[in-house]
User: Fold this.
Amino acid sequence: MRSRPYVGFAIATLASDVAMANLSVFLAYYLRFHTGLASSAGSQSWGEYVTLGVLESLLFPTVFAMRGLYGFRRSISRLDELQKVFTTVSIGMVLAMAISAFLSRGFEYSRGLLTLSWALAILLIWLARLALHYAEMWIIERRGLNERVLVVGAGDMGRSIIQRVRASPRLGYYAAAAIRAHEGDESETQVEGVPIVGGLGALGEAIDRHDVTEVVIAEPSLTQRELLDAVAECERRRINIKVFPSVFQMISSAVDIGDLNGLPMVSVRDAALRGWRLTVKRGVDLLVSSLLLVVLSPIMLLIALAVKLSSPGPVFFVQDRVGLDGQPFQVLKFRSMRADAEAASGPVWAKEGDPRRTAVGSFIRRLSLDELPQFINVLLGEMSVVGPRPERPYFVQEFSRRVPRYLDRHREKAGLTGWAQVNGLRGDVSIEERTAYDLWYVENWTLWLDFKIMLRTIFSIFRGRNAY
Assistant:
């Protein structure tokens, strides 16, 4: 029953791809030969380009389907979608040109028109797909087609998952119930407003009673037998199941399976950036930091004046942080709190509604403008534009004692922004989850990932989540 709307969404996306492919050819032909936007020595027959449009209509959906881009996806990154559309349209365009060159018997297509058609196809298909995705999520929400989720685990991880589900209603999930992973205190009947309906032994009954369509196991301390029993219970009822990664699973992303003269061995990968990748990353840091320091200098001057005039104390706040290879460095920020903010409390994280903030400080922290001087740290080579956020030595010592592989974050330069931050993990959140995101970034680094994080940072600044 629930799969029918998703089939309809896939058909609508396919039809949209075909329509946008043909529209891109038509618009490119019109702009090339019937406007003054591009000089032309003459005109060419539209009929030849109809063939190109037909080929694109056949090839684009084929390539999209081969790359698995007609499957239903609840969460979608605009930038990831653009990258996939760019790659797929480029492949389809090359194939279409190769086939049309064979069929056209010597007809020479306009290079300018082909380039324009390629660019328009990427833009139009991407925009249409985004519009359809948001329309799909709206329909799912309005028609009540949400997947009813049961969370196994009423602890911190279960709480975090329920918060994420609530924060993204258009993903089509609804937290219907939760169950305790272990026997214990039964005085609590709710977690984040979701009813706790029993223990792990009542999983099957809870699935039936609450019409659950998906189970999320948010308790990594389950034994292997308990986990297998829970999976079997879901499989018997044909219920989807997701497992929140345990600490071992977080570590295992850096594990390779090999052998030593036939003897199986498990080894941990060296996740540090080396060689040309390190050189490329440093080149991007120099380019971005120097450019933004020049462009943003008027804004930084205004912020400095506002900080100085609004409260007594220095303009800049200089603080020791831990960077590459665990070496300390002094990070620069615009001062956003009273000069004596930690005189009584000692080192503490900022919290929502923190009374230590100044009036100007509240504003610049909400938009992360207090971080702008850190581009100087990037220019000096002490930080990178993208990387794990640096912590103070006091917190590094505390976290390294209780979070496995926490110190591996310091095998790369600290970043002004990072993968954890653009995924909402900033401020007073789970340090274990933030560490998992930081390690994933280090182990899966690409230049495109850095650019994607930079662009997402711009959007996340204006949302201002947990920016206090």
Observations:
- The chain has three domains: 3-142, 147-244, 275-463.
